[in-house]
Amino acid sequence: MKRGLPPYVGRWAPPGGFVEPHESPEAAAVREIAEEVGIQLNSEQLVPHAIISLPAMNQIYVCFLAVLDRMPLPQACAPESLDARWFTLEEYPRHSIWDPGMEFDAERIFKEVQTGQLHFHQCTGDSSRVFGPYVKDGHRLLDRHHVR
Question: Which of 46, 61, 86, 130 could form a disulfide with 52 if both were Cys (CB 3.0 to 4.6 A apart)?
Answer without folding.
Answer: 61
